[in-house]
Amino acid sequence: MRSPVSGREGAAAGSPGRFPPFSRLARAAALSAGSDAEEKRSGCSAGQPGAPLPHHGSGGRGDRARPGGALCQYIQASKARDGASPFISSTTEGENFEQTPLRRTFKSKVLARYPENVEWNPFDQDAVGMLCMPKGLAFKTQADPREPQFHAFIITREDGSRTFGFALTFYEEVTSKQICSAMQTLYHMHNAEYDVLHTPVADGGDPCGMEDGEGTPGTKLQRFNSYDISRDTLYVSKCICLITPMSFMKACRSVLEQLHQAVTSPQPPPLPLESYIYNVLYEVPLPPPGRSLKFSGVYGPIICQRPSTNELPLFDFPVKEVFELLGVENVFQLFTCALLEFQILLYSQHYQRLMTVAETITALMFPFQWQHVYVPILPASLLHFLDAPVPYLMGLHSNGLDDRSKLELPQEANLCFVDVDNHFIELPEDLPQFPNKLEFVQEVSEILMAFGIPPEGNLHCSESASKLKRLRASDLVSDKKNGNIAGSPLHSYELLKENETIARLQALVKRTGVSLEKLEVREDSSSNNKDLKVQCDEEELRIYQLNIQIREVFANRFTQMFADYEVFVIQPSQDKESWFTNREQMQNFDKASFLSDQPEPYLPFLSRFLETQMFASFIDNKIMCHDDDDKDPILRVFDSRVDKIRLLNVRTPTLRTSMYQKCTTVDEAEKAIELRLAKIDHTAVHPHLLDMKIGQGKYEPGFFPKLQSDVLSTGPASNKWTKRNAPAQWRRKDRQKQHTEHLRLDNDQREKYIQEARNMGSTIRQPKLSNLSPSVIAQTNWKFVEGLLKECRNKTKRMLVEKMGREAVELGHGEVNITGVEENTLIASLCDLLERIWSHGLQVKQGKSALWSHLLHYQENRQRKLTSASLSTSGILLDSERRKSDASAAMSPLRISLIQDMRHIQNIGEIKTDVGKARAWVRLSMEKKLLSRHLKQLLSDHELTKKLYKRYAFLRCDDEKEQFLYHLLSFNAVDYFCFTNVFTTILIPYHILIVPSKKLGGSMFTANPWICISGELGETQILQIPRNVLEMTFEYQNLGKLTTVQIGHDNTGLYAKWLVEYVMVRNEITGHTYKFPCGRWLGKGMDDGSLERVLVGELLTSLPEVDERPCRTPPLQQSPSVIRRLVTISPNNKPKLNTGQIQESIGEAVNGIVKHFHKPEKERGSLTLLLCGECGLVSALEQAFQHGFKSPRLFKNVFIWDFLEKAQTYYETLEQNEVVPEENWHTRARNFCRFVTAINNTPRNIGKDGKFQMLVCLGARDHLLHHWIALLADCPITAHMYEDVALIKDHTLVNSLIRVLQTLQEFNITLETSLVKGIDI
C-alpha cells in the first residue's frame, strides 16, 4: 500500500468515443470498478483494493483479479515510491502503519469502457484512471459518510487539445469475504505496529482524521478504533464517468446522478441502464452554436445550451462559487498572477472546487489562453509535477488536516499559492497591479451584490454574511410585505453597508469622483422578461446570469485595453511557411510603440504581460488568420467587439486614456441565454429498448453493474444526426472544429504550429499523465532541461537585441525600441528563469528562493574552509583574479569575489526576503558583468551541487549547464545599470583618488582641498579632503551614474597652486569607475585664475581579459582638458581647425542634444556630457570663438572671457549714451550684459574658462545663444580682437551657426546644479 494520502475518489476511466458529424454531447461513458475480485453478480463488480470503480462512459475492460491476494500484495509494496514526493503528507517515511487501514488508499483501475475504442481518439487509460480517482481506491464502513461526490476533470494532451471528464464517485458494499478478512488482518497488523511504536492509546484513534472534515471530533475516535468483520459493513469506492469533447458540466452531472439514482432506488428504472447510456452516447447530438437541446435522463429531462459564434465561448462552471470561496480581492490577485504566467498552485479538500477555480480563472482571461502546464487536479502519484521548472496551473488535494506549513513545495519564488477552502492566497513578490483595478473591482462587486454575494466572499464570513448569502437583493426590492424595506435599490445597499470590503472600496473610490452610494442593485432580468418561461429552475438561471455578467465585465476590460492592438501587429513580409520557419527570430508586435501610448499607471502590468506566452500566441494567431473565414473563433469574437468599441468611441482610437469605461454588453448577452432557455430548439430521441438477449440488463440493486458491451460498442446504423459513411479523416477535422472553442487548432499547419512555434519556456507543453516509471520521469525531466535551455537562449538573445538596438540608436543607427520599464521587465523575467532552473530537481527545499539558498550553502562552505585554513585570503580571490581597469588607473583594482558581492546584498537593510536578495544579487552581478562567472564558480563546488540536487536536475546536466553559462556570458557585451537604477535609496561606499601632476610641485601644495560629486540621482555635500591625502572612501546614498565632480581649494598657505591631472571615483559595490580628466591649474594667477573646476566624467570599461580599452557604445565624453591645456600653455601650438571642421563639431554637438530629447524620458543619458563633455556644445563654441583670435603678446594669455567682458562694457556704455539701434537689439544686449555681470559677481572662483562654460549653459537653457552670437558678430570689439579670416566675421558662416543653434529652442533644457551653483537668474 502507498503512503496513504486520504482517498475518496475511485478511478474512473473515460474515453472519447466517436462523434457523428454533428458530434455528441457525451463522447463516451466509462465504467471503472472498485474491485474485480468478486464473483459475477449479474455483471456487477464490487470493490477490492487493487481495482478502480465502475465508471460510466468508458472504462477498463472489466478484467477481474483474484480476490483476496491483491490487498496483501499492496502491504508488501509499501514505501517503494520513487520520485520522492515534494509533498509531505501527514504520514512521512516509516509511519505508514500509523495511518489506519481505512484511511489508506489503494490502487484503482478502469473496469470497463463503452465504446471500447474510437480510432481517431484513443482512450488514455492511465490519465482517466488517475483523474477519476486521483487518490486511488478508498474503503469506508457504515459509520462513515458515504454521499456520492461529483467532480469534473480535464485531460490536456501534449499538443494542448483537451477532453473533459465528469465523474461521480459513490460507495458500494464489499461482498467478497477475502477482502473483508484482508482488511481485518491489516487492522491487526496496524494495531500491533502502533503498540510497538507508541505507548498504547486508549482507543487507537485514527491520527489522520477524516478526509472531508465531516463529523465531530468525538465520532472520529470511535469510528476508526478498528474494523470488526463480524460487526462492521465494509464499503469500497466506485466511480462512473462521462468523457465529452466540450464542457457541458451541468448536463453531464445530471446524467450521472440520475444513473446512480437508478441503481440505488428500490424501484428499477423503466428501461435497462444500457438504453439510457446508449441514448447519451449515440443519440444525443451536440447542440448547434446558439441553440439549446433537451434530452431525457433516467428520471427527468436535461437541458443544455451552447453560445452562438459571436458570444463568449461555452463555460459551464459556477463563477459564483469562486467569488464566494475567495472574495473579489483574492480573485483579482489570482487572475493577475495567471495573466503574468506565474506558477499557480490551488489547494483544496474538494476536487470540484479545484476544477471550478482553475476553469473560471482561465475562462475570465478571454481572449487570451493559458499556454502552459494545466492540471487542475493533480493525482497523488504525480506530485513530482510540482518540480516542473515551467509556469503551471495545478490543483492539489488537501486532506483537510495538514496546514500550509506542512506543505513543502520545490519552489516558491514565483509561486501563487491559493488555499481555496480557507480564503487565503500567498502572492509572488513584485506583483504589479491590474490596470484600473479599483474601478474594475467596484464594477464586479456591484454585480455580486445584486446577486446577494458579499464581495469579500462567503466561506468564512460572519453569520450575518451567510444569511446575506441566502438573501437576494432582488427579493428585497420586490418584497412588498416587509414594511421596513421600500422598493428602492438604495436600501438594499444599506444592508450591505456593514461589509468591510465595500467600506474600503468606498474610501478608495472617493478620490476618483465615483460614489458608491449610488450603487444600483440590478433587478433580476427574469423579472423584466415575465413573459419568458424558462425551462430550467430559477437557481440554474441565476447561475447562468451571474456567469455571463461577470464574464462580460472581464471581457470588456480587455476589449478596452487592447482596442487598438491591431495597429501594432507587425505583419510578416514573407509567405506563411517561411515566416513560420523563422518564427523565433521575428518580432510580431511593436511593444515599445504600444506601451508609449498607454497611461503611465498601466505600464508595470502591461510591459510584463506583453512578454508572456499567452500574448505572443494571441498575436501569432492574429498574423496566421488574415481572412475572417480562417479566423480562430475566439479571435473573431474579440475582433468584432473591438470594432464595435471603435465605432462607439468618440475619442481617437490610438489615443489612450486611463478613463474607466463600464461594460455595456451585459443585457444583450443575458437576453440571448434566456431566449435559448425559454424556447428549446432541439429535442433528442428518447431512450428506447435495445436489441438485447433475454436476461441481459438485469442487475442487483445497490451495485452498479457491468454493462453489455456488445450493444454499447456501436451506434445506430443511421439516424438524422449521423452519416456513418463519413470517412474518419472528415470526422477528425470535424472534431478539430469543435475543439476550436477551447483551442486554436483549425488545420494541420496550426497543429504543427501550436507544438513548435514560440515554445519559449516549455518544450513540454503538457506532461503526459501516466503511471510513474523511472523512464517516464527521466524523459519528462529531460524535456524540462531542454526547455529551460531553450528559454535561456531566447531570453538572453531578446535582452541583447533590445539593449544593443538601443545603444546603436545612440550612435545614430535605427530606432529606439526599449524603455526602462521594458528593460526592468526583461531582467525580472531572467530572475524568474534562474529561480526555476535552481529549483529544478532540488533534494530538499530550504527558504523561498532556491538560488539564494544555494548561495548561502556556498558561502557557509567557503567560510568553513577559510577558518580552517589561514585567514589571509578572507574570502576574496587571489590577485590574479583582480579586474584590470583602465591602464592609467592608479587605483588598486577591486577584487572579484562572489562572497563579497553576497555580503553587499546582505548588508542592504531594505531587502527583507530571500527572493529579493537573490534578485538583487543577480542584478548586481549583471551590472558588474560577472553573472556567468559567479554562477560558474558557484557550480564548480561539485560536492555541494550533488548534495543539493537530484541526478536529473538541470544543474547536474553538464553540457546544458555549460551552454547555459555561455549564453549568460553574452550579457558582458552590453552595459546594464540594473542594480544602480533600482536600489536608489541604499548607502554606497565611494572611493576617491586624486592624481596631481608629479612634475609641478604637487607635494608642496599648502591649501585645503574639497570635492563634491554629482550623479543622475543626486549630489553629495562638499567633502573636505585632509591635506596631503589623495585617496579616501566615504559612504553616501546612491548617486546613480556619476556625471560631474567639482573640485577646488580654499587658497590658503604659501603655495596655494595645484595642478590636477584627473580624479577617479569608484562605486565600491558595483565596481563602476569614473575618470574625470582635468589637466588644469587651480590657483590665483595660474592658468585662468580658477580656484575650482567642474569636471565631466567618463565611465571606464573594465574587461578582465583585455588591457586596452576597446571602442565603447555609446561613447561617453570626458572633460575637454587636453586641448585647453595646449591653448593656455602655448596657444600657438593649438591644432588649428578650419571653419568646416568647426561647423561640423557644432552641428554634431547640437544634434546630440536634439537626439537626447527625442528619447523616452527614462532612457535619456546625462545632458551635462552633451553640454560640457569633450565633444559637447561648450567645447564646440569655444573652438568657434578661438578661430581667428588675434595672438596675444608673449607670456600673456588672453581668454575668450576677456573678449566677452569687453563686449559687455561696450554695450553698457551704448545704453548709458542711449544710442540704441532697435528695440530687439536693445533687449538682447541688455540680456547679454545681465548674464555676464551675474557670472562675474558669483562667489565661486571658477576661472575664465569656467565662466565661459557657465554662460554657454545658461544661454542654452534660456534659448539665448543664437541672439548672442548675432550680437557679438556685429560688435566693433570683434573687429579689434579677431583677424579678418575669423569665423565670427564671416556673415554666411555666422548665419548658418545661428540657424543650427535655433533648433535648441523647442527643448526645455534643465541644468545640473553643479553647473550653475551660485547663479540666480
From TrEMBL:
Record's subcellular location: Membrane
Protein name: DENN domain-containing protein 5A
Source taxonomy: Eukaryota, Metazoa, Chordata, Craniata, Vertebrata
Record SMART domains: dDENN (SM00801), DENN (SM00799), RUN (SM00593), uDENN (SM00800)
The keyword Membrane is annotated on this UniProt entry: yes
Transit peptide among keywords: no
GO molecular function, one term: small GTPase binding
Compositional bias of kind Low complexity: 20-33
Principal place of residence: membrane
Keywords of this entry: Guanine-nucleotide releasing factor, Membrane, Phosphoprotein, Repeat
Domain named RUN: residues: 821-984, 1168-1316
Boundaries of every PLAT domain copy: 988-1096
